[in-house]
Amino acid sequence: MNTDTKRAIGRHPAFAVLSAREIRCLQLVAEGMRADEAANVLALSSDEVNEALTGAREKLEASNLMHAVSIAMLMGVIDHTNPHQPK
Fold it and tell me: d(Cα 79, Cα 31) in Å, to the nearest integer?
């Protein structure tokens, strides 16, 4: 199956305007953390993490959080390597 990256990430992705917090929250979700777990890691409230994730989703024009994570991975904004894979 051939995936068209431009189609998958939309016409005008706004990844350049993602804040450092939004990127870090997306990265932690990509690693399998829930928002409350990411909040503990980042020393933020769950509300702050949820606001960052919502902001990232809206900026990336994603239909849901997993779509936002996928877009961020395709664009290289977040790392998609498995942190548990032996090196």
Answer: 9
